[in-house]
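Form 7-S
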Amino acid sequence: MRDARWLVIGLVASGVVQAPFTNYAHFSSAVSPGDGRAIAWIVTWVAHALATGQPLFDANMFYPVPGSLTQIDPMPALGVIGAPIWFATGNAMLVYNVLKLVGPALSVWAVARLAYAWTRDEWTALVAGIAFGCSTFTMLHNGHIQLTWSGGVPIAILALERWWAAPTWGRAAMWWGAAVVTALISWYLAVMVAVAAGLWLVCLSV
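Output:
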């Protein structure tokens, strides 16, 4: 129940802080200005490639240039996560807007879990989660969904701590799983999770 509360509150908070930048009246068609359309295309290209057997990186953005998806952040994990919506609707804007709303909510939940492990106080953990998931950085980059899906970083740190306290293959798999999925969401997050895990290993060692 605690996790569910954090997730629901995170979803509400994400919706509130993104309200100035999101057209909820046209949620399935309006998209953030700037890079929004490009990101919507990237994540749905991944789903399209999965469905059709097209080579993932031979996207049609710069056709006929091969490997064009390697020239940008490919976000394969977001494409897989958004694939069911794409398969059901064929609506790239809806995929993008759902991912834009859910990413910060998951970040709220993830940091709340980490903070609860440190404080054992549910409301302190929730405040920490909202401060992270709905920060000014989130509002500034709300259209760059590959940056607001950052919940894997605190989950990787939590899993690393648990593995360090009692090393098992299961805990190692959880740690590496969180890190790999985070890296596949965005190369930016790959750098963040690598640096965070490295620094935390140093802190745990001293």
